[in-house]
Amino acid sequence: MKPKPNEYEVIILGSGLGGLIAGALLSKQNLSVLLLMEKGFKTYFEKGGYRFIPFSSLSEKHVTLDLIQTLSQKLGLSPIRGKRRDQENGAGRKERVAFQVILPKSRIDLYEDWLLLNKELQREFPKEFFEIEKFYKEMARIKTSLKSAKVHESVYLPLPMRLRSLLKNRFYYERSPFSKEFKKFLQLQLISHGNFYSDWFPISFLASHLLKGEIDEWVGLIDLEIFKNQVVEGFFNSGGRVEEVEKVQKIEMGWRRGFTLSLEGESSFHSKILIFNAPLHHLIPLLGERQKKIMKFERKIQPSSILIPIFLGIQEKVIPVGMRDLFISIFDLENPFEGGNLLYGSLSPRGDEGMAPEGKRAFTVLGFMPLEKWQQGLFDEFREGVFRHLKRLIPFLEDYLELVDWGWVLEQGSRWSYSHYIFETPGGFNWRDGLIPIRISKNLYFIGKENFPYLGLEGEVWGGLRVGEEILKRFH
């Protein structure tokens, strides 16, 4: 029997990386797959020779080699190398810095090499360095055990292991013997890896990420758009189809006929299996009678803040000596979400004329803004706070600005494809299994930052691979 027009085995709603990976995996096995993208949604901004790419976590800017190799193998992609990494060897490799953590009284470069990081910590936290050194040695011991468990499982697994005899306790910041500044240093490293803000993390997760450069080689700064375009190309080449849609009005599900997605006007699409690949709180209203059943998952995790990008074009000479191309910075330790107090920053690589004109740098700054203030339109206080914070980091910044754009987020931030949020959870959960399951009913799957929000890009990739592999088992 020939399939009916607009009828597919799998429909993916949303164009995030996890959904693209699942789609590419499924189309490679000759399943009919349709990817529905939101018309008019932009994942980047270009103006005056500058190119800016917003991001949701620092893990989207540098990734582990393990992750790249896994994707290359599963999808048949050419490995992507980070900028300025191919020529590095010897001392250059040791001096790699994942990113910089900027605190009110200290500034720490997270070197890949432990000896260099050790010197940074000794310089910035001299009074408590003895306890810090003991703490890192214990983390290294646990990290080695985690790596051994990974080898035995013989699969790519970024999530914390279940080593019950070794890892019974959780790491609580309030119980540790460190200063408030050092505790915040640890917390910001973990928060910056994903889309999850928490005051506690399991000790296995802490060990997995504090010493990432010690064991896992990371690739360096990447352009996530190039990364995604390679996956899209593989999807197209294996027969996948993409449609841009203005708005999905309603999603209906029947036990035999699968899902019907009604669009604006009279058009509709049908599929046996549906994959959500956008923030869950944006998609739940489309489900009609099923909304109440799915809301139990939404209650597990809620967006607490939205990441607001501000795009700055600046002259190279204004960047202070010692400022790294990627950083997280906090102005006041007590009020992290108030008025531009907590920022991510990403400078385009020096000399990259694809991102900025000669002698200039594209500077993407993302501030954490409470979601209720965003919904109320309270932007002025936030914007003033961001620039107050930036002037502390870069003196005389305003005298060297070439370009400032704020309007992109006002247009794109209200779209259902916008995925730059920070999440919190009101209750406990199993770190190993994630917060939101990848399958939320018989034929309805979900791939989003809410699955494994503490894993960032790794969580999205892992979710996409798992969904693709689970669906393939049902068809073969």
Structural overview:
By secondary structure, the chain is α+β, with helices and mostly antiparallel strands. It has three domains: 7-43 and 223-301 and 431-475, FAD/NAD(P)-binding domain, CATH 3.50.50; 112-214, no CATH class; 302-412, no CATH class. Helix content is 34%, strand content 25%. The protein contains 15 helices and 22 strands. It has helices spanning 17-28, 65-75, 91-94, 114-124, 129-153, 180-193, 203-210, 212-215, 224-237, 280-283, 291-298, 371-376, 379-393, 407-412, 456-475; strands at 7-13, 33-38, 45-47, 50-52, 62-64, 97-102, 107-111, 170-172, 200-202, 218-221, 241-245, 248-254, 258-263, 268-276, 302-315, 326-330, 342-347, 360-370, 401-405, 421-424, 439-441, 444-446. The strands form five sheets. Strands 1, 2, 11, 12, 13, 14, 21 and 22 form an eight-stranded mixed beta sheet that branches. Strands 6, 7, 15, 16, 17, 18, 19 and 20 form an eight-stranded mixed beta sheet that branches. Strands 3-4 form a two-stranded antiparallel sheet.
- According to DSSP, the number of beta strands is 22
**Considering the protein shown, what is the CATH homologous superfamily of the largest domain?**
FAD/NAD(P)-binding domain
Structural class: alpha+beta
Q: Low-confidence spans: pLDDT under 50, at least 5 residues?
A: 84-90, 151-157, 163-174
Instruction: Give the biggest beta sheet.
Output: 8 strands, mixed
| Strand coverage percent | 25-35%
**Distance between the ends:** 19 Å
CATH architecture of the largest domain: 3-Layer(bba) Sandwich
- Mean of residue pLDDT values: 83
CATH topology of the largest domain: FAD/NAD(P)-binding domain
